[in-house]
Amino acid sequence: MSSSVAPPAILFVGSDEELASHAAVMDNLGRFGLRRSLLRRESLKSSDFGSELAGVHAVVFLASKNSERVITEFLDLKERIPDRPVIVVTSRGVAEGGVLLVKAGAYEAIVEPCAAADIAKSVLKAVQHARQGSLNREWSRFISSERIEMSFKSRDIGFCKVPLDIADRLFEAGLLDSSGKLRLTVAFQEAVVNAHDHGNLELDSSWREDVDLEGIDAFTRIKIERLTNPSFAEREIWVSLTFDGQELRITITDEGSGCPKSVREAPLPESPLELSSGRGIFLMRWGADQVLFNDIGNQVTLIKRVNRTSEQRLWQ
Amino acid sequence: MEYKTETSGEKGYILLHGDLDSEASGEALRRAFNDLFEQGKRTIVLNLDDVRIINSYGIGKILMCYKRLKAEEGVLMVRPLQGFVRETFELLMLDRLLPVEENAQ
Q1: pLDDT tens, position by position, A132-151
Q2: Inter-chain residue contact A279 with B19, CB threshold 8 Å
Q3: Touching check for B11 and chain A: CB below 8 Å?
Q4: From residue A60, how far is each of A56, A193, A222, A291, B18 by CA, in Å?
Q5: Which one, of A109, A105, A76, lies nearest residue A92 by Cα?
Q6: CA A167, CA A182: separation in Å to the nearest integer?
Q7: Per-residue confidence at A43, pLDDT binned at 50, 70, 90?
Q8: Fewer Cβ in 10 A, N or C end of chain B?
Q9: Between chains, do A211 and B68 touch, taking CB under 8 Å as contact?
Q10: What is the mean pLDDT of chain B?
Q11: Given this model, what pLDDT does residue A49 score?
Q12: What letter does residue A250 receive in the DSSP assignment?
């Protein structure tokens, strides 16, 4: 089960001359870090379109300045690709059309003149939103499931947040208090982040100390690079949840070489600055009653007991 | 994560709203911090009243801000903490590191 999403479509609206210049913009989009998968070729032909670029990446050109016509074509496009956001790029002459299209459901309207970088940013934003929505929908199945197993690739969680709806459900049922809910949520986030950052992407915490003049650390820079490298980004994370009414068990497994025992079992240091790595594990231990690792260290199980008469914190 | 920056005399203030638990929210904090740092502010106060949850991402970025200021003999402060954020700070001993600005801004 994967949370990958289809890329957004880009609808250019303008005169024939304006549309001709967009071909160059599209060629430039690849330079702005958009992965090839976002620019895969597909055809969104329509015989009514003034300019058709068969085989151009997920792009539709519409040579019309008539707002009604533009909206009609947009709605037709949305019907053909209902699950994909549509970014509209309009010339100044149809700027109001762009506003109308956003009201009609376009993800965003960009008014010319604009650089390829502006369009690239919008595409990346749309993809991140779509991925977050896809993850949220999958997690929401916990409402009625007693056991759930899922997996996702590193590239799909990238910079998204991973929700834990079941903590909310346990809180609503009165089985966790507000602090317990947040601590469990953080414990789960930390386990997934560890699996993703240190497991699959093999990022070293010490790289956070190497900070450039803009405050961006090497950890973040290398993370971005590895998220576009299939040998890292395609690695999986598996999550398994079970809840029997009293005990919630969450197991997270990654494809990395494992967290060293010295890090897993490190005591809390005297100063927070000494804690350049291992903060996540402390937060896991704080949020769960038990934290169990397999021998290698690439699998962690968080156990949270919600029976109030037997709440007992165990360190492992 | 939304943020707002303000200045009052020599101090800069960062008001955060949302969850400080992802790279994206950590990036927002970094941008807010840079705004003030580049204006020459070396006493910066974080207002985390509207932050519901914080994890190692957020803590890492806060420590990055702390170190950058310290390198310039500056100081990172916080407004009085509450709730889950206060609990997290105490667990990870950040309350020993960052002084609290008690007076109203």
Answers
A1: 666 656 555 554 456 677 77
A2: no
A3: no
A4: 8, 38, 34, 51, 37
A5: A109
A6: 8
A7: very low
A8: C
A9: yes
A10: 90
A11: 32
A12: E
Question: How many angstroms separate the CA atoms of A112 and A25, rounded?
Answer: 12
Q: Half-sphere exposure of A183 toward its Cβ, with a 13 Å CA cutoff?
A: 25
**Complex ipTM, two decimals?**
0.90
Instruction: Kindly report the backbone phi and psi dihedral angles of residue A102, in degrees, each rounded to the nearest multiple of 5, phi listed first.
Output: -65, -40
Tell me the per-residue pLDDT of A254-302, one tens digit each, with 9 for 90 and over: 999 988 888 787 776 666 666 556 688 889 999 999 999 999 999 999 9
What's the pLDDT at A313?
33
- Candidate from B21, B64, B96 with C-beta closest to A161: B21
Identity of the residue in A183, A216, A272 whose CB atom sits nearest the CB atom of B97 = A272
Residues of B in contact with A211 (CB under 8 A): 64, 67-68
Residues in chain A closer than 8 A to B99 (CB atoms): none
Interface mutation vs chain A, best among B34, B38, B56, most A CBs within 10 Å: B56
Residue A109 phi, psi dihedral angles, 5° rounding: -120, 130
Over residues A161-170, the mean pLDDT reads 76
Using a CB-CB cut-off of 8 Å, the residues of chain B touching A220 are 23
Does any CB of chain A come closer than 8 Å to the CB of residue B35? no
**Radius of gyration, CA atoms only, chain B:** 12
Provide the phi-psi class of A95: left if phi over 0, else alpha when psi is between -120 and 50, else beta.
Answer: alpha
Angle at A284 between CA B84 and CA A174, to 5 degrees: 55
Dist CA A221 CA A111 (whole Å): 31
- What pLDDT is recorded for position A167? 85
Residues of chain A neighbouring B83 (CB-CB closer than 8 A): 179
Q: How many CA atoms lie within 13 A of A80 on its CB side?
A: 14
Residues A103-128, buried b or exposed e (16+ Cβ, 10 A)? eeebbbbbbbeeebebbbbbbbebbe
B72 touches A: beta carbon within 8 Å: no
Q: Tens of pLDDT along A231-248?
A: 998 899 998 888 877 888
Tell me the C-alpha distance between B33 and B14, whole Å: 7
Number of H helices, E strands in chain B: 3, 4
CB atoms within 10 A of CB A160: 20
Locate all alpha helices (DSSP H) within chain A, ordered by sequence: 16-29, 67-80, 95-103, 116-139, 154-157, 165-172, 178-193, 218-227, 230-233, 261-264, 279-287
d(CA B30, CA A243): 38
